[in-house]
Amino acid sequence: MANDRELLNDPRITLMGLLEEAHAALADKTAQQITQNQLATGEFEALLRLARSENHQLRMSDLAAQSGLTNSGATRLVDRLEARGLVTRQTSPDDRRGTSAVLTEPGLEMVLKVLPGHLEIVQSAFLDGIPEASREVFFDTLRAVRNHIRPEAERGAH
To answer: Where is the HTH marR-type domain (predicted)?
Structure first.
């Protein structure tokens, strides 16, 4: 029985619970603001990643890796965005088999429309809860954890 209590009181359970609660709360707040702009959160994330990438484009495989999607999931996402004129596809000049998603001007305009409200929420609901002196260490720690779990997501990331 004592071992059961120790197991149930393992601090890793608390760590995961806190992480999941914080993520869920922040995701709920940002999703409301993003959907008010007729985008799904995954669509906004993809558009934002493209906007922050060199030449506003990413190889489809890199977009998938950064977004935590399968290649087919990224293809379906880009299909939806392409149908709305927010992205286009471009064949890689280096490798005719490789395709990149490229942000269009309307796609960039959409990102710039949604981003100020998104950043306000991230600031007030998330960063304001982290002491300023701890923020750099917090960012470095999150990046280290992400890179440990999904090292492929670092390709082309900013």
So the answer is: 12-147
Main-chain phi, psi angles of 85, to 5 degrees:
80, 15
Sheet of 57-59, strands arranged across: 57-59, 99-103, 87-91
What torsion, rounded to 10 degrees, do the Cα atoms 54, 56, 62, 65 define?
A: 110
Q: Which residues of 67-86 are buried (b: 16+ CB within 10 A; e: fewer)?
A: bebeeeebbebbeebbeeeb
Which pLDDT does position 34 carry in this prediction?
96
For the chain, give every domain's residue range. Answer: 38-154
Neighbour-count burial of 126, counting CB atoms closer than 10 A to its CB (0-12 exposed, 13-18 middle, 19+ buried) = middle
Percent of the chain exceeding pLDDT 70 equals 93
pLDDT in tens, 99-134: 999 999 999 999 999 999 999 999 999 999 999 999
| Confidence grade of residue 27 (pLDDT, cut at 50, 70, 90) | very high
Instruction: Report the topology of domain 38-154.
Output: Arc Repressor Mutant, subunit A (1.10.10)
